[in-house]
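B., you asked whether I could sanity-check this one before it goes into the benchmark set. Here's the sequence:
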Amino acid sequence: MELLYYYVTGAFVTGALLTWLMMTLIGSSKYNAILKKAEKEADVIKKNKMLEVKEKYLHLKADLEKQISIRNAKIQSSEAKMKQREIMLNQRQEDLMRRTSEADTLRENLNNQIQLMERKKQDLDKLRQQEIANLETISGLSADEAKERLVESLKDEAKTNATSYINEIMEEARMTANSEAKKIIIKSIQRVAAETAIENSVTVFHIDSDEIKGRIIGREGRNIRALEAATGIEIIVDDTPEAIILSGFDPVRREVARLALHQLVQDGRIHPARIEEIVVKVKKQIEDEIVETGKRTVIDMGVHGLHPELIRMIGKMKYRSSYGQNLLQHARETANLCAIMAAELGLNPKKARRAGLLHDIGKVPDDEPELPHAILGMKLCEKYKEKPDICNAVGSHHEEMEMQTLLAPIVQVCDAISGARPGARREIVEAYLKRLNDLEQLAMSYPGVVKTYAIQAGRELRVIVGADKINDKDTESLSTEIAKKIQDDMTYPGQVKITVIRETRAVSYAK
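And here's what the prediction gave me:
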């Protein structure tokens, strides 16, 4: 409305100004016509403006009413929510009051029950004391004494039962373990077929005729002296027909001397300078053959990643022997046995084969340090970056250090199998008889021992004790002591079984 008023007022002011202006300019005659026309136009404009203002007013009013209705709806929704929340709060308050009342009731009942239990407990304590007093009066023992006797009785009974149970378990485990171990060992041995190799300390060099002997000896023996000096081998030229004997404990040197002699005889030129030249060439040839043998061995065995120096030492085993058994053949046989046994036990056969092949590497060093071959082999393996379990298996296969993995006892057992099988090793008769005699004398040194017999080629020692000097319990400890003494003081291949026999004999004569 205010807009309408200002609008009309402005129109009138404008009309008056225009009227005065027209009257001044045109005069009164034309003024009336112009005035009428202006009034008509002013009415039209007025009506149009009034309609526009009214229309705007209606739009504003509609928008305002819409906003008011939206706000009222929100207010009503909020009021409804508030009422609903108030109802929920009232319900919760009622539930809380009800639960509080129930909790108070339960607490009161619980207190009553606790009081009742305390009274009953006191009554039971009184009754228990009365019963204990009655029992002490009847038995003539105090409660502590009776308890001690009962505990001791239960201890003795439990100890007897436990001992019996332990003995049964140990016996069953021993029988099962022996059976399974025998099966695994037999399977491993059956699956490995190795040749028997006997090494001697002499090599026989065959010649076509005895005339060559004189050429080998040379004028005043100069050729044979040059050959012995160059090879370090004793050359024996005797009456043996068509044969020359090469004697020496180093198989490599004997092989060098044999090949040198073979080339000299074929060439026909035998004199000191030629001998030295041929020996140098043969030594180089033998060194190359050692490396080639090592490479061929590790390829055949499926062992990869060995250091070149270890491969050379493996090849060198071909020219070494242990108790008459070729060392390379022994290492190959032990490696195969280790792989088979590891596979039977669910272990890694590749690692076991590697450890078995390297276990005697300490027997072929370039120098000769004062160390046991097992410890020296372990140090060589450590030097050439072998894994710790391989090094431990090599170093502990003669129990000179503690075994740390399951690989170590496998290598030890397979080494013993390879060395102890029939025909594997050759022993000097005097040393064999001395070992048997030492076994018997060692057992005879114990009190109560009557007789001893070393049987099965020294694999078993039977000890007969006097029944009046040693009881049954002491026989077990005696066998253990003798076994430990033999293990500590003697050197022997394989293992020795000690059987202690105690028997009581009653003798009567009928006349």
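One thing to flag: The chain has 15 helices and eight strands. Otherwise nothing jumped out at me.
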